[in-house]
Amino acid sequence: MKRLYFFIGLCLLIISPGISSAKEEVVVYISEDRVFSEPILRDFEKDTGIKIKPVYDTEETKSTGAMNRLIAEKNNPQADVYWANEPIRAIVLKQRGISIAYISPSSEGIPTIFKDSQGYWTGFSARARVFIVSDEKNAPDSIMDYIDKQWKNRAVMANPLFGTTTSWIASLFVVWGDEKARDFMEKMKTNGVKISTSNGESTTLVVNKEFAFSLVDSDDAVNAIRAGKQVKQIYPDQDKNGLGCLILPNAVVLIKGGPNQKNGRKLIDYLLSPETERKLAFADCAQIPLHKGVDTPADVKKIEDIKTINVNYEMVAKKLQEIQQFLKKWTKY
Amino acid sequence: MVVKIKNLFKYFDTAPAVNGVSLDIRQGERLVILGHSGCGKTTLLRMIAGFVVPDKGSITIDGLLAAKDGKSVIEPENRQIGMVFQDLALWPHMSVYKNLEFGLAAKKISKNERNERISLILEKVQLSEFSNSFPSNLSGGQQQRVALARAIVMRPKILLMDEPLSNLDYDLNSMLRKEILKLQEETGITMLYVTHDRNEAFSLATRIIVMKHGAIQKIGSVNEIKMFFKY
Amino acid sequence: MSKKLTILITIFLFIVIGLVPVIAMFVKSLFVGGHFSLESYSLLFKSRQQWHLLFNSLFLAGSTTFITVLLGVPLGILFGKTDLPGKKIFIILFVIPLVIPSYILAIAWFYCLGRSGIVSGLFGREIAVVTLNFLFGFSGTLFVLVSICLPVVIIFTITYLRMINPKLEEAAKLSGQWFFVLRKISIPIIAPGIFLSALIVFILALGEFGVPSSLRFDVFPVESFIQFSAFYDFNAATASAMPLGLIILFILVAERLFLRKKTTQMTIAKESILKISLGKAKPFLFIAVCVFTCITVVVPLAILVKKSFVLWAYKEAFIGSIDSIIRSLLYASAGATLIVVFGFFLGYLLEHRTFRFSYAADSIAIFLFALPGTIIGIGLITLWNTRATNFIYASAVIILFGYIAKYTALSTRFMAVTFSQVSRSMEEAAQILEVGWIKRVWGILVPLVRKGLISTWLVVFIFCLRDLDITMIVYPPAHDTLAVRIFTLMANSPEEIIAALCVIMALITLLPLFILGLVTIKRW
C-alpha cells in the first residue's frame, strides 16, 4: 500500500507543473543561443521574482523546435514570449497571426527600422554581418570583393540555406532586385567562393589562413580576436555611398493568447532595456546595442557609428521564402 | 456424472486434433485416456481444464455448461478442477508450504483451515518434514508428491493428470503409481489420467479410453482393453 | 479484472498513447485549409530533395548495418566463445557508446579532429584539415554510428551463441577445425539472431538524429525538420515522412515473414558451451581488440574527460544543470516503470498469443520504435495540444507518452523472451487452483520473471535517459532533461563546460548499467 501512495505521489509531482499556474511565472521560447540568453533570464528571475519557464533551441544545432512549436500551438498557446535570434522568424509569426502587438516603453530610442511599426516585434541587441580577414594590410572592404578576380578561390562563406547567411542573401535580393542579386550569386560561384557549414567554420578557416576572408556574424569575429587570433574585423561597404552593413537584431514577440500576458509584457520590457543590451554587449556574444549611448566594450562598435543597410525586414522575410528553391539549386540540391 | 462431453472438435490450423469426442466421466472413477503422442489426448484434457477452447461441441462440469462451440463459459480458475502437469509446474520461488497455500489463500480460506488442510495432505504424501523446503531441493519423487498434494488440497471435483510420471525411472514410477492409487481410494476423488503407457493405464484405471487420430477408438474396462490389444 | 480485460486495456492505452498521434498527424496532413487534398503529397513527389534525403538516410543506415555486422559478429565470437583475456571489460567498454546520448561521441571526436582540436595541435593544421573532412559528412557520421551500434551486434552474437545446443557443435567438432565448425554450424544456426541485430541497427541508424545533426550529414530525421521550419509547413513535413513510414512497414513485414518463426526456437542451454582456445593467435588478437577498442571508445571518452578536467567547468556545469539532472532521472525512472508495465502485458500477449491480434500490438510497437522520434513528437503535439488536454501537454506526462510510444517495443520483446523461458504450466497450475488473474500476476508471473523485469527496466531507463529527439520536441517549458540541455547549450558554449556536462551525463547513465553488471555477473 505504501508503494501505491508513493506512486500516486510521484504521478502528482510529474503532473503538478501542468496544473499549477497560480504562481507568478512567464513562459518564453528562445532561439538565441542558450549560453547567452540563459544568464539574462536568470537575472530577470532574480530582479522581478517572476519564474521563467523556458523552451530553448539553437539554430546552430539545427533543432528549430521552438519556432515550430509556436506554430503548432497556435490554437492553444503555451508561450507568452518568443525571443528570436533574428527578425525574420518574428515576422513569420506576425504573418501567421500568432503574435500580438505590444509597444514596450523600453523600445523607445530603438531606430524604427529595427522594429515593427505596429509593435508585433521589436529588435534589440544585434549582430552585424562583418568580414573577418586574415591579412590586415591587404583587406577587402566591400561585399563586391566576393566577385573580384583578385580574391578568386580565396573567399569563403557559410551555407546560404541556413541562418544569418540566408537573411543576408535575401536582403541583397530586396535591395538590388532579383536580377542583380542572382547575377551576384552566379559570379560568386565562378569566382570560386567556398561554402562552409557554418559561420563558426568560416571563422576557423580564416583564422587558420586557409582563406583570406569571410562574411561572418560580428560575434564570431570579435570572439576570434578576443582569443588572440591574428585576424581583423571589417565592417563592409561603409563609404558614404556604400551599401552599408547588414544588422540582424534579436527580436522579441508577445504571443497571442499566452497564459501570462502581464508577465510577458514585463519580460519584454526587461529584454528591450538598455541594461540588457549592455549585458549582451559585454557577454561573449558581443552584440551591438540598438539604443544610443549604451556602454560597449572597445571591440564592439556602437550602432550610431555603423552605416547599415537600409532594408525593410518584412520584405526580407517575404523574399527569403521566395528564394528558397533558388538557393537550394544554387547549393546543388 | 461429473463431466459430460458432447461431440467435441478442436482444430489446430486445419487438421483436427480432437475429432468428435463424446464421453462421460463418472463420480469416483479413475478414467485413463490411453494413446500415442499426437492422438489428441492432451488437447482433450486441456479443454476440460479450460486452457483450450473447443471449436465445436460442449463440456459440462457438475451440471454447469463450461464451454461450448468456440466459447469458454467458465474460466479455468472457476471450474474447480485439480491438475498435475507433465512438468509439474511447481513454483520455484515458493516453499512446499507456500506452493500448497497459494490456491487456498486466493480462495480466501481462513489461516487455520489452510494450516489444517495442508498438514493433513502433507502427512498423506509423507512430506511433512519438507514443508519449508523449496522444490529445487527435493528429489524427483518428492516433487511429484508436492504437485499431487497441491492439486488435491483444493478438494477439486475432478483431478486431471497429464502424464505426470513419464519422466521417472521404472522403480519410482511404479511406487508412485501405488501411492496415487492409495490416495485416490482414500479420498474418493474422480480422476482423469492421460498416458501413453499401457502398464500405467492398466494398473491405475477403472475404465480406459483408447484414442487415435483425435477420436475415441475404444472404451472399456481394463480387461476389455487388454483383450482389445490382445495383451 | 480478467486477463482479457487487462490486456485489452493495455493495448488500448498503448494505441492511444503511441499510434493515435501518428494517425492524427497523417489525417491532418490530408486536409489543406479544411478541405480534403493530396496537395502535400503531390508536392512531395516533385521535390528532388526529399528523395535525396531518403537516399542519404537509407545509404547511411545500410552502410552502418553492413559494417557493424562485419565487425560485430567476429568480435561477438571472440568475446562469447574464446579464451580471450579481459572479455568482460571489452564488452563493457563497447557498450558505453550505445548507452550514452549519441551526440556525445560526435562532440568528443570534434574536440579531437576539429580545426582547433588535439590532432591539429599535435600534427599541424594540414593533417587536421584531412581529419576534419573525414569527420564532417558521411564518413564521420558512419564511423560514429558504427561505434554506437556495434554493441548491439556483439551482444546478440554472444547471446545466440550461448543458446546453441552444445551437442550440435560437439558433433561437428569431432570432424573439423573450429573455423569449419563456426562457418558451417554455429554461424548458420545463429543467423536469425544476426539478422535481428542487423535489423535493430538499421532501425537505430535510420532514426538517428543527434549524430548526423552534429556532424552535418543531411539525413531525413534532421532535414525534414529544417524544411519543416524553413516553410513552417506541417503537412509537407508529414508527407515527407510517408516514404520512410512505408519503408519501415516493409521492414516489419520482412521481419514477420523471415525471422519470427526461427528466432523463438532457442532456449538458453543449461550445459556449458564449448570454448575455443586461441592458442598462438591469442596475443595478436588481444592487441588487435585493444587497439580497436581504443579507437572507437577509449579515445573519445578520454578526450572528453581531459577536456573537462578543470574544476570550474564541473562546478559551473553542475550548478546550472542540477534541475535538469534530477528531471532526467525522474522522468527516465517514471518512463521505465510505465514502459515495463506495458511490456509485461504486451510481452505476455506476444508470447502466449492470447488473441488473434497478438502480433498486431507487437507490430505497432516496432513500427513506433523505428519511426524517427521527431515524427512521433510532432504527432504528440498535434493530438494533445488542446485546451482540454493541457494537463497532459503542459506537464511531463507528454514526455512520458513519447517514451512509451517509442520504447515499448524494447520492453515488449524483452519480456516476451523472458516469458518464453517460463513454462506455461506455471501459470496454469495456479489458474486451475482457482487463483484469479491479478493474484496470478503478482504471485506467480512477476516473481518468476523478476530478473527479466529488472533488466528490462534498466535497459528502458537508459534509453529514456539518452533520448533526445522526442524530448527535444515535446518538453514543456522548464522541463528540459540533461540530454536536451547539453544539446541546446552546445552552440557557442565554452568547450570545457560541454565536455564536463557530457561526462556527467555519461556517469549518470553508466551508474545503472554498473548495477546491471553486478546483477548479471552474479548470475553467470
- Secondary-structure arrangement, i.e. CATH architecture of the largest domain in chain C: Orthogonal Bundle
Radius of gyration of chain C: 24 Å
Main sheet record of chain C: 2 strands, antiparallel
> What is the domain total for the residues of chain C?
2
Q: How large is the count of helical segments of chain C?
A: 25
Question: How would you sum up the global shape of chain B?
Answer: globular
CATH class bucket of the largest domain in chain C: Mainly Alpha
Q: Total domains of chain B, how many?
A: 1
Any idea what the CATH superfamily of chain B is called? P-loop containing nucleotide triphosphate hydrolases
Gap between N and C termini of chain B: 30 Å
| Mean pLDDT value of chain B | 90
**Strand arrangement, major sheet of chain B:** 7-8-9-3-10-11
Task: Describe the protein's architecture and organization.
The complex is a heterotrimer of chains A (333), B (231) and C (524). Chain A is α/β, with parallel strands linked by helices and 333 residues long. Chain A has helices spanning 2-19, 34-48, 65-72, 87-95, 163-176, 178-190, 199-207, 218-226, 261-271, 274-282, 313-322, 324-330; strands spanning 25-30, 51-56, 81-84, 99-100, 122-133, 155-158, 194-196, 213-217, 232-234, 247-255. Chain A folds into 2 domains: 24-126 and 248-303, D-Maltodextrin-Binding Protein, domain 2; 128-246 and 321-330, D-Maltodextrin-Binding Protein, domain 2 (3-Layer(aba) Sandwich), CATH 3.40.190. In chain A, strands 1, 2, 3, 4, 5, 6, 7, 8, 9 and 10 form a 10-stranded mixed beta sheet that branches. Chain B is built from 7 helices and 11 strands. Chain B has helices spanning 41-49, 96-106, 111-124, 140-152, 170-187, 198-204, 222-228, and strands at 3-12, 15-25, 30-34, 56-61, 64-68, 71-72, 81-84, 158-162, 190-195, 207-212, 215-220. Chain B is globular. Chain B starts with a strand and ends with a helix. Chain C has 25 helices and 2 strands. In chain C, helix 14 (282-307) packs across helix 25 (495-523), helix 20 (424-432) packs antiparallel against helix 21 (437-448) and helix 24 runs antiparallel to helix 25.
